[in-house]
Design a protein that fits this description.
Length: about 260
């Protein structure tokens, strides 16, 4: 088993880090540069930044936000939100971003995954899949787009398989049912995708206790664990999460 990565996530809106529940009701969680530096010092393996309003507002992502953070980090920076073309990905990489996470645009134009992986390598291309429970889907999970506002009638697990075939390097599934609730990762959703693809899967959405992080790996089969609220509001430190996982027999980077 490869060592598990811990990834704090900075959801961005109007230049600030925010956190909501079920993708709405957001509250301020601080300055992005200060947060990113803090997490790096804490031992985070990567930092993710998501421009959560870009697609809904029909605009490009804010390069300035990510440039400022990339300049102070020496760990990988993953960015998503408002990415709709190879030019957008190139612009992010030019300001120091390490990996691009694409979502809505990939659903509209799946060839974007193939083109990006071909130009930059699969390792720099993530596909984020926002999902919700829907018993009418073969897997029981439906893809939602545009920041969780638009159900697509498309099976989330089948979409993950297609992303893998197109060259995606990692899958980032986020459950709308769990996002921001602190009730735990959506383990059936995460596991369904992890068992369907041969790619690293990043558990996301809902971590609230140390046990939840363990379950994300042991039951959700995740290769990395992304969280926001528990880190932003200092419920736990990255080091506490790593030490807890290591103490329960999970190999963790840097421990």
């Amino acid at each position: 088993m490869e060592p598990v990565r811990i990834i704090p996530c900075l959801d961005m809106k109007e230049g600030r880090v925010v956190k909501g529940v079920h993708f709405v009701n957001v509250r301020d969680a601080g300055d992005p540069v200060e947060n990113a530096l803090f997490y790096q010092q804490e031992g985070a393996d990567e930092v993710a930044m998501l421009d959560i309003a870009a697609t809904v507002e029909n605009r490009k992502t804010r390069l300035g936000w990510f440039r400022q953070v990339a300049e102070v980090l020496h760990i990988p920076l993953v960015v998503g939100g408002g990415i709709s073309s190879l030019d957008d990905i190139e612009a992010l990489f030019q300001v120091g971003v390490s990996k691009a996470s694409i979502n809505t645009a990939a659903l509209a134009h799946p060839a974007l995954i193939e083109d990006a992986a071909g130009r930059y390598g699969s390792g720099r291309v993530l596909v984020a899949i926002d999902g919700r429970r829907n018993p009418e889907m073969p897997s029981g999970f439906e893809v939602v787009a545009a920041g969780g506002t638009k159900p697509l009638g498309r099976d989330a697990v089948e979409w993950a398989r297609e992303c893998e075939s197109l060259g995606a390097g990692q899958i980032l599934p986020t459950s709308m049912d769990g996002d921001g609730t602190l009730a735990g990762y959506d383990l059936p959703f995460t596991r369904a995708i992890a068992e369907a693809v041969g790619l690293p899967v990043i558990a996301s959405g809902g971590a609230g206790t140390l046990q939840h992080f363990y379950e994300g790996v042991a039951e959700g089969k995740a290769a990395a664990l992304l969280a926001a609220s528990v880190f932003h509001f200092r419920t736990f430190t990255v080091r506490q999460v790593k030490d807890y996982l290591a103490g329960r027999g999970i190999p963790v980077l840097g421990v």
